[in-house]
Amino acid sequence: xxxxxxxxxxxxxxxxxxxxxxxxxxxxxxxxxxxxxxxxxxxxxxxxxxxxxxxxxxxxxxxxxxxxxxxxxxxxxxxxxxxxxxxxxxxxxxxxxxxxxxxxxxxxxxxxxxxxxxxxxxxxxxxxxxxxxxxxxxxxxxxxxxxxxxxxxxxxxxxxxxxxxxxxxxxxxxxxxxxxxxxxxxxxxxxxxxxxxxxxxxxxxxxxxxxxxxxxxxxxxxxxxxxxxxxxxxxxxxxxxxxxxxxxxxxxxxxxxxxxxxxxxxxxxxxxxxxxxxxxxxxxxxxxxxxxxxxxxxxxxxxxxxxxxxxxxxxxxxxxxxxxxxxxxxxxxxxxxxxxxxxxxxxxxxxxxxxxxxxxxxxxxxxx
Length: 368
Hints:
- The protein is of the alpha/beta class.
- It contains 14 helices and twelve strands.
- This is Anhydro-N-acetylmuramic acid kinase.
């Protein structure tokens, strides 16, 4: 039986669709064979963001987007396999997260919605698909997120010291691994989502490369205080969040409440300070020192990573590349891992992280 799995991830930052081809012959030390990304075209990204924010005719538009999302994913997988001279039959399964449009774990009727048709993906790729990971955890009373801490524990945990894996995606989340204790994890708040959103609105760029625009500004303390007053930051875990709570509309409301003109670059600097502050505060609540592993696309934001490190003076900060795994590939690898766990009938969630009633085998199976 093949030990090769492909993971797909398209996160809240809506910058790219990432695919990772992983060999789990040695489950304790998975081998990343290859990775590839489809950078969303401007019209694709605009449509996904519009659907996430709520838009006219969204049922028809989300149905259509789910189909072209699957087509892009299948094409990406075919390119990845071709690069490594592999055929679909060489891969056991695809773990597909899909693209989240809504995540409402605290609703009267909790639900989560990801587009991306696993049936079409299986048909186009010729590979069986495991999908709908969040839904199974939520059915058991959990929040369906974050799901990556279990994978972080599998590849990063140490026996001698506290290790925190920090994923800087659209939302920032941490996985806390302390010797002799189970992994803890939760979303700390916004990361690239607001930084990218403000940059795209006021510049011609898709993101603030290396955080240079933010570095050109000055943090506005009044705005930062208003942003930090959001109750989510002081709420206890388990907790997860997304664009529903920390979208651009939330930022606009805070700017109105502050009621003063703030330079555009100063808003960007303040958003960077918000992420650095909330991340560092969360980590320091867990342990005074240890090793911090930076993952996700936000790990490429030099100014952001420097700001976080400056607040964690007793922590050794390093990128996931130090472990042999590119920062951008970690989340896609995690969904390959979850697909592998599904095929073995093993649980993929951490109840202490998501709040589920117990460990569950995550996902639904869609054969090729």
